[in-house]
Amino acid sequence: MNSIPTIALGLAESGLPVLPLRADKRPFGNCRACEDLACGGRPNMATPGPCACPWPCHGWAAATFAPAVLGSPQWAAAWRRARAIGYHPGGGGVTVVDLDNPVAVTWARTTLPPTRTVATTRGEHWIYSGTMRSVNGVRAGVDIKSLMSYARWLGPGTGTLAELPDVVRALAEKKPTSVRPALRAVTVSAPAGGGECRHRSPAYLERGIAMAEQRITDAASAIHATVYRTFLAVLSAHGRCGCLTEAHIARLFTAAQTKGESPRHCTDAWSNAQTALGM
């Protein structure tokens, strides 16, 4: 008997937003239109696809503790097939310091204040009360998962939950060791649009831009490719209806330049994405 749905329901009832995960730890879609990414959601679930379903459908945004959603036929089917439980730490008011190897665990034990810990396959999750932005690769083998991220539920853990310390918050604000040129504003005209707008509210577009920024920010490697794929995803979802503004584009370019991309590369990646989509 699959106990995953029962455990997930208990977590949701306790106030922790949950989502079903596949065997490969990817989330399921949150509605029939998004099943197996039929709506066009990206493989790493970091940006929303061009769907118009009533619920958030991708990655961390699919996590919920709403009984109406958890009890829907679509989610019931997903939970029956789920192989793991995911949850949105930020939505539950916590931050997970994901320690991916023994070296990272040793670092945490000598650097971070004690808190609740959960054993993982390769290391440990250290869980603190409080939220912050999620950042991957803050140091070797260490990721921070809180807002706009999801973690795998591996049990309640041991120890007393401590308040999120400044030393963890500081990891997300750590200055890069390499010297990068100052960010430059790059002017790119927004697509003219003219197509039918599928967005039900400005919040859908805002969420899409925020998740795209996060995807670029979280990239630990293949930055060029990540920037291009993110631009392609944003244009695919929002580039034909006229909702995308130059302010939205500037946010994406700023995120890319913060990762070390040049203004020229940003412009080229945007232009190449438009060409690929026939815009």
Radius of gyration: 20 Å
Order of helices and strands: HEHHEEHEEEEEEHHHHH
Largest sheet: 6 strands, mixed
Structural class based on helices, strands and sheet pairing:
alpha+beta
Average pLDDT value?
A: 79
Terminal CA distance: 51 Å
Any idea what the shape is?
globular
Helix content: 25-40%
- DSSP helical segment count: 9
Tell me the number of strands. 9
Low-confidence stretches: 41-50, 175-182
**Strand share of the residues?**
5-15%
Walk me through what this model shows.
A hairpin with a 4-residue loop joins strand 4 and strand 5. The longest helix is centred in the last third of the chain and has 17 residues, at 202-218. Residues 41-50 and 175-182 have low confidence and may be disordered. The protein has helices spanning 4-13, 67-70, 73-81, 102-111, 166-172, 202-218, 223-238, 246-258, 263-276, and strands at 18-21, 84-87, 94-99, 116-119, 124-129, 135-139, 142-145, 151-152, 162-163. Strands 3, 4, 5, 6, 7 and 9 form a 6-stranded mixed beta sheet that branches. Strands 1-2-8 form a 3-stranded antiparallel beta sheet. It has 279 residues and is of the alpha+beta class.
What distinguishing features does this structure have?
three-stranded antiparallel beta sheet, 9 helices, single chain, globular, 279 residues, alpha+beta
Summarize the topology.
Blueprint: H1 4-13, E1 18-21, H2 67-70, H3 73-81, E2 84-87, E3 94-99, H4 102-111, E4 116-119, E5 124-129, E6 135-139, E7 142-145, E8 151-152, E9 162-163, H5 166-172, H6 202-218, H7 223-238, H8 246-258, H9 263-276
Parallel strand pairs: 5-9
Antiparallel strand pairs: 1-2, 2-8, 3-5, 3-7, 4-5, 6-7
